[in-house]
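Collaborator request log, item 7. Partner lab (contact: R.S.) asked for a structural prediction of Short-chain dehydrogenase to inform their binding assays.
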Amino acid sequence: MTRTIVLTGASDGIGAAAARQLARVGHRLLLVGRSPEKTAAVADALGAERFIADYSSLDEVARLADELRGAADRIDVLANNAGGLLGRRTVTADGNELTFQVNHLAPFLLTQLLLPQLQAGSGIVVNTSSSAARLLARFDVDDLDTERSYSSNRAYGNAKLANVLHARGLLARYGDAGIRPVAFDPGNVRTGFATGSTSILRLVYRTPLARLLLISPEQGGEHLRHFVEGTPGTTWQPGTFYAETTPATPSQTNPLVHADVLVDRLWERSEARVAPWLRGAR
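Returned to partner:
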């Protein structure tokens, strides 16, 4: 069955790889990227539609949602794949720590703004998380901007944990309305990840051993495709966190994933931060 798929972070890495794989099946692809040139190169080669947005601006996210709503009355899949491990602590013009905004608040807002189109379609929301949610997170819902103790690794780990909590919050609030969210760790993928960051992890991605230690973008794209094309409740279970394409074991999961009170508190704080843009859409 062909689907209308919004895929963010589609200009490079596993997003571009997944887009190439999905295009072979004949899905309608609405590809989102930050770089106009790179996004156009991927989209034009596949005959896909392209959209540009910089997640460091929530105004751009709201504009993106307007453009997507204008392009599609129904959306079967929203793949929130954009994100990254960034550098020194920066506060956006919207007042949020940059890593938290790019990796969590921007996709949170985009998802909220596209809920009617998702409900008209298959209602699938796929959040690309990371093993960093377990290995790097030091999550404090009262310090979402990591003002007290910042490192690029901690900020990224916290944001990737937020991706998992977001999926759980979506299911709790909109599952009865047909929204089917899932979060997954695609594996450690051999891409340009962390290149512009101050994290020591950037060195791992540059070493010649990367080919032995990391999987290819095509393999990571296959893991993303598994959820995009799968059947919720059969191929995968909504609200569950997956390591690649299998349910994450306790050793692969941050215990905070199962804290219902944290799911609710993060949702409330996130909703408050994007409230001006949600009101503007009504």
